[in-house]
Amino acid sequence: MASKAVCPGSFDPITYGHLDIISRGAKVFDELHIVVLNNSSKEPAFSVEERMELIRSVTKDIPNIKVDSYRGLLVNYAREVNANAIIRGLRAVSDFEYEMQITSMNRVLHEELETFFIMTNNQYSFLSSSIVKEVAHYGGDISELVPPQVEEALVTKYNVKK
Questions:
Q1: Is 91 designated active site?
Q2: Annotated site (Transition state stabilizer), which positions (predicted)?
Q3: N or C: lower Cβ tally within 10 Å for the chain?
Q4: From the candidates 42, 47, 104, 143, which is the catalytic residue?
Q5: Can 137 be counted among the known catalytic residues?
Q6: pLDDT of the chain along its 162 residues, tens only?
């Protein structure tokens, strides 16, 4: 049986931290579905379609990746694509409590679905999409934080000069 995993997130925008988790997850699973979810508690800078296109652009060299979006419970998406695992990235201890709550609920909803946590590379442990958007909004240098395609999209979005 082929191993399939889902890697969910809002990816608004995708960062080098996300790519670290994605590329490492893609080495472990036969197929990795990057799933753009809408976080109702956040106001996104990019539409779901724009986020998906940016993800496709920066992961085009990883052959076993599929990019999708979903509205609803992640466990239902996992069932639809026959995934047997979820990959979640952890930056710091502060992420763990929240992730444990989600994992515990997912376990109640879909007992066979395993969750794997991948610690992000230390150089990205501070990195979040929110920080990237804030820095980009004020014209700061984000070239070390996101791929060039994402940097360009943010510069255009916020109408700032590099």
A1: yes
A2: 18
A3: N
A4: 42
A5: no
A6: 679 999 999 999 999 999 999 999 999 999 999 999 976 677 899 999 999 999 999 999 999 999 999 999 999 999 999 999 999 999 877 778 888 999 999 999 999 999 999 999 999 988 999 999 999 999 999 999 999 999 999 999 998 776
Q: Catalytic: 129? A: yes
How many angstroms separate the CA atoms of 130 and 119, rounded? Answer: 19
Tell me if 155 is assigned to some domain. no
Assess if residue 139 is contained within a domain.
no
Provide the H-helix boundaries in 7-92: 16-28, 48-58, 74-80
Q: Which domain holds residue 43?
A: 4-122
pTM over 0.85: yes
Would you say residue 26 lies in a domain?
A: yes
In a domain, 20, yes or no: yes
User: Catalytic: 33?
Assistant: no
- HSE-CB at 23 with a 13 A cutoff on CA atoms is 13
What's the domain count of the chain?
Answer: 1
Q: The domain spanning residue 45 has which CATH number?
A: 3.40.50.620
